[in-house]
Amino acid sequence: MKTVADIMSHLPIVAEVPGTRSDAINIMVRNGITGVPVVRSSDGKLVGIVSRKDIFRNFDEDQLSIIMKKDFITVESTATIPSVAKIFLDKRIHRIPVVKDGKLVGVITPTDFLDEIRELKTNVTAGEAITQTCATVYVNDPLSYVVSSMRVNEIMSLPVLDAKGDLVGIITDRDLFTDQTKDLDALREMGLDEADQMLAGYRNVLPLFYVATNKNLPEEYTVRDFMISKPTTVYKKTSLSEVAKIMKQNNFSQILVHGNKGELVGMIYDIDVLAALLR
Fold first, then answer.
1. pTM check: above 0.85
2. In this predicted structure, what is the pLDDT of residue 265?
3. What is the domain partition of the chain in residue ranges?
4. Burial profile 89-115: b = 16 or more Cβ within 10 angstroms, e = fewer
């Protein structure tokens, strides 16, 4: 049976303490990732883990040692794939440091399981695997409302409906952040140098712009201006193997699910797809 060592990311990218919020942002932007383990610079000991949500939630804090999670889960490199999939499903987390003899040797995320799942002959469907309530936004909602809602509810993607309740798009933190990279002063306030400013628009970081600059969004900005129209969807009877294939090919962490008449059923996340490994 395959183990974590077979699918994890080796030689993980890390942040160090002492360090700052800007250090973590720079690492995430440069590497196109949304979270990293944190090690102590003096001896390399694993002391925490930090994600974009942690930064977004604690943006008034500058010290990484305060922002990072100190209570985190680790797994051994010899752990089986199903056992770790169950941890992801039970805890609803997005990355786990991998250790061997107490030392950090890798990181594993739900994305690392997708190749395994798409090779399965599973009967579990997208509709059966949905676990989270799906919030929606209206196409003409003010963008300021959406940003606040994302931050308060820690939801990074929302289906967009029109006045008839029909699905017309999806809006994510990536869409919000990308458009604002035109404001180079705002990016400098986040501690990003010129090279990072060029990369930032293509990275799935989060709409840090709004928090870092304390600026009010123009009232005329609406969801329609920032959403992705005609988003990729799957049918509720689509197998999780096919869902995993689509996620892997498109670098998606979530996909909208529709019913028999095209109606929105919900959202399936990469964590939900891991259910295929436990059936």
1. no
2. 94
3. 4-108, 126-278
4. beeebbbbbbbeeeebbbbbbbbbbbe
Residues whose CB is less than 8 angstroms from the CB of residue 17 and which lie 6 or more positions away in sequence, other chains included:
38, 39, 40, 41, 47, 48, 64, 65, 68
Mean pLDDT of 106-135: 93
Phi and psi at residue 124, to the nearest 5°: -70, 135
Question: Following CA atoms 10, 249, 176, 197 in sequence, which dihedral angle do they give, to the nearest 10 degrees?
Answer: 50
Contact assessment for residue 234 and residue 95, using Cβ atoms and an 8 Å cutoff: no
Which CATH number applies to 126-278: 3.10.580.10, 3.40.50.2020, 3.40.50.1010, 3.40.50.720? 3.10.580.10
Residue recorded with tokens 């030392």:
103
Q: Which three-class secondary structure state does DSSP give residue 101? A: coil
Comparing 203 with 138, which gets the higher pLDDT? 138
Mean pLDDT for the stretch of residues 111-122: 93
DSSP helix/strand/coil, 129 = helix
CA distance 269 to 247: 9
